[in-house]
Write a structure and sequence with these properties.
By secondary structure, this protein is mainly β. It is about 10% helix and about 55% strand. It contains two helices and ten strands; from the N terminus they run βββαβββββαββ. The strands form two sheets. It has a five-stranded antiparallel β-sheet. Strand 2 and strand 3 form a beta hairpin. It is elongated, with a radius of gyration of 15 Å. The relative contact order is 0.26.
């Protein structure tokens, strides 16, 4: 199956915490970073997710925010450090490719944000992704 979601990074489930309707799934990405996905309990069951399951963490590029360093005092669980590898500027929006250990992410952000953050190839950044915006697929 082909998907339009650009950001797909392989990993392994390290923990599943279930609630009444939702679950948090902790994933160790192949590059060694930890990522949390908040998905439905039904999805956990349908995918047969358990500790040790191989998965692909996916997130839309519009759901990836960038910061120029780690951010404290924030509810966003996922902060992946990386390096900008490419910036493609449009009239209003830009796509920024970020190399992280074990993969690459694309962030769709405003042209103004790229300018204000002085983002260019080689810039150190932190990709911020809400756990509710991470989808999982079995590998």
């Amino acid at each position: 199956m082909s998907l339009s979601i650009r950001n797909q990074i392989p990993g392994t489930v390290t923990a599943v915490t279930t609630g009444e309707v939702m679950a948090t799934v902790k994933v160790r990405l192949d590059g060694g970073q930890d990522l949390t996905a908040a998905i439905t309990l039904e999805a956990v069951k349908d995918l047969g997710l358990a500790e040790g399951s191989s998965v692909r963490a996916m997130m839309k590029s519009t759901e990836v925010a960038l910061a120029t360093g780690p951010v404290e005092g924030l509810s966003i669980r996922n902060q992946l450090p990386g390096t900008v590898s490419d910036v493609a500027m449009g009239r209003a929006m830009a796509t920024v490719k970020v190399t992280v250990d074990g993969g690459e992410l694309t962030a769709a952000i405003t042209k103004d944000a790229v300018t204000e953050l002085s983002l260019a190839p080689g810039s150190s950044v932190v990709a911020l992704i809400k756990s509710t915006e991470v989808s999982l697929a079995t590998a």
